[in-house]
Design goal:
112 residues, mainly alpha, 434 Repressor (Amino-terminal Domain), 58% helix, 0% strand, elongated
Length: 112
């Protein structure tokens, strides 16, 4: 597993990255896709694919997800229709929440 260079990551984050990296590699090998073919299909360099399969946390999430899809790794939901349903539900939830998270203002009570 690759070590982060510029920042620290939680152990849970690194373990999740390692799990996803292993699933991508296993899926690629199971489907008999070479690194060269996979990187070409994903539109990324071979070195980036190798970093993804090493669990490097600095890889772009879009590249990681594309590699996962090509390798047959399920992201969030096994069925694409369920993913769209979840997205719609979260879009609705976000529309009901405030636009940004704000801490409440501190009220100074100076009326002695």
């Amino acid at each position: 597993m690759a070590k982060p260079q510029h920042r620290t990551y939680s152990r849970q984050n690194l373990e999740a990255l390692e799990l996803l990296a292993q699933a991508i590699r296993a899926g690629r090998i199971g489907r008999k896709i070479t690194i060269r073919e996979m990187s070409s299909r994903a539109g990324i360099s071979r070195s980036l694919l190798q970093r993804i399969e090493d669990g490097d946390p600095s890889c772009a999430i879009g590249a990681v997800f594309e590699a996962a899809i090509i390798a047959g790794v399920s992201l969030f939901e096994a069925e694409p229709d369920r993913l769209q349903t979840r997205r719609a539900a979260l879009t609705e939830k976000l529309s009901l929440l405030p636009q940004a998270a704000r801490k409440p203002r501190r009220v100074i009570r100076d009326d002695f």
